[in-house]
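Section 5.1 Outputs to date
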Amino acid sequence: MEHGMERGRTPKISARSVSKTFASRCGSVPGSRGITALDGVDFDIYDGELFCLLGPSGCGKTTLLNILAGFERPSTGEVLIDGVPVSKPHPKRVTIFQEYALLPWRSVLGNVEFGLEVAGLPQFERRRVALGLIELVGLRGYEGRMPWELSGGMRQRVAVARALAVDPDIFFMDEPFGALDALTRLKMEEELTRIWLEKRKTIVFVTHDIDEAIYLADRVGVMTSHPGRIKRVVEIPLGRPRDRTSFDFIKIKVEIQAEFELVPGSAFVAVACAQGTVEVGGV
């Protein structure tokens, strides 16, 4: 595992030999084995880091995220957050799913205020916080709109604002942009980067998209399947905002593609030629 510049820092989140086995449909038959979704997963995530779990469908990304968030227990091993074992969800750790999960009978403002209302904040205080967050996610002027009046990207922005309202320590995000069209997805990646740079929350982001992982993350945990393991943690030493067409971006993409035994596309060769480093294009 690669810690790079994080060496010597105390982890915010630690996974230690985490394994998860689900009972198979033949579980009641003597000698039958369960399905091992995760096996011996070890990694650290640091305070304020944007960390992506990257892997193909079925590699255990969501199972691992659910264990980190406390929705599931590992079969063996443990997860620590701030040095304390995780045994259940915590109100300071918020999960955002691909489904927007907005309350359909509440307006944009009402949805963002919901967690603050549950926490017992006075109306004027929750209104102040909610309006500020609605502006932060770029939805000023839409406060009175209902969820069905919003596009997919706008609904996901509401979900982000609602999560920010309770001031969580950690965001767990399970392919939150997966249901969006390609252009809206790119815009939401830009928006998430902007919000993260302003708030510096710890984010664990699940994706199967290599470009998305490189664009967003400080580090990428590359997962393999059957069973799911962290094969390698790749540091992304790029400034923000990131240029997906740059030589350095595409070089990292090819490096990650190699972890999945994928053949690099012609785009990298073209960039390598332009940079005068044609020999790298043979990776």
